[in-house]
């Protein structure tokens, strides 16, 4: 049932011009074409009408697994097309995360990661301590070459269960790992 709903959503979102010629099948028309010509006629006697309904039901029963495979194929095709349309660009990463976790509100944002310079306090070879007025300590991923390339800001609302549900948290990481460019690092943060 859920796959059929996904299929209806997929068919409304995709380009009808491209799908109508290649991937749309009319099973009612196919059943009528598979019926023998004598059973297709209207205005026949009662035994022929009963035989026509029985034959039509039998053909529908034979085509039920094919219909199921057809629906599965269309859902799979929609999923693959969705993956192919989205890349590792920031706009697409935000769209994928918002489509999955925050549908409609689009509160998940991606920004460049902080690139702070290392502050060296004391080097042994200098033999000179350094006076520090005020230094803020940051996460190790915020500094220099080891820092993250981008940060994903996910709100802590109950609508987005990434912070409370470990399965959703792992799913968020797997989506980011799938779509991000190779070699890029990221960090999930709370705004």
Explain what the structure shows.
By secondary structure, the chain is mainly α. It folds into 2 domains: 2-85, no CATH class; 90-189, no CATH class. The protein has 7 helices and 3 strands. The protein has helices spanning 2-13, 16-22, 27-34, 37-40, 46-85, 90-101, 166-179, and strands at 109-112, 150-153, 186-189. Helix 1 crosses helix 5 (46-85) and helix 3 (27-34) packs antiparallel against helix 5 (46-85). The longest helix has 40 residues, at 46-85. It is rod-shaped and about 105 Å long. The mean pLDDT is 75.
Throw out a few tags for this protein.
2 domains; mainly alpha; 3-stranded mixed sheet
Topology:
Blueprint: H1 2-13, H2 16-22, H3 27-34, H4 37-40, H5 46-85, H6 90-101, E1 109-112, E2 150-153, H7 166-179, E3 186-189
Parallel strand pairs: 2-3
Antiparallel strand pairs: 1-2
In one word, what is the shape?
rod-shaped
- pLDDT < 50 stretches: none
The number of helices is 7
Distance between the termini: 37 Å
Radius of gyration from the alpha-carbon trace, in angstroms:
29 Å
| Helix percentage | 40-55%
User: What pattern of helices and strands is seen along the backbone?
Assistant: HHHHHHEEHE
Strand order of the largest sheet: 1-2-3
Q: From the structure provided, what is the oligomeric state, counting identical versus distinct chains?
A: single chain
Number of extended strands = 3
The largest sheet is: 3 strands, mixed
> Class by helix and strand content?
mainly alpha
Q: How big a fraction of the residues is strand? A: 5-15%
Count of the separate structural domains: 2
What integer is the average pLDDT?
A: 75
């Amino acid at each position: 049932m859920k796959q059929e709903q996904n299929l209806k959503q997929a068919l409304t979102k995709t380009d009808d011009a491209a799908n109508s010629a290649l991937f749309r099948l009319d099973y009612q028309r196919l059943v009528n074409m598979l019926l023998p010509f004598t059973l297709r006629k209207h205005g026949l006697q009662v035994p022929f009408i009963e035989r026509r309904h029985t034959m039509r039901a039998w053909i529908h029963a034979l085509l039920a697994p094919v219909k199921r495979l057809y629906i599965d194929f269309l859902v799979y095709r929609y999923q693959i097309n969705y993956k192919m349309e989205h890349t590792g660009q920031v706009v697409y990463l935000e769209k994928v995360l918002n489509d999955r976790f925050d549908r409609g509100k689009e509160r998940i944002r991606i920004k460049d990661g902080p690139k702070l310079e290392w502050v060296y306090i004391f080097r042994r070879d200098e033999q000179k301590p350094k006076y520090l007025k005020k230094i803020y300590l940051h996460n190790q991923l915020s500094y220099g070459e080891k820092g993250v390339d981008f940060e994903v800001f996910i709100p802590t609302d109950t609508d987005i269960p990434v912070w409370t549900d470990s399965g959703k948290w792992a799913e968020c990481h797997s989506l980011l790992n799938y779509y991000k460019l190779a070699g890029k690092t990221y960090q999930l943060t709370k705004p």
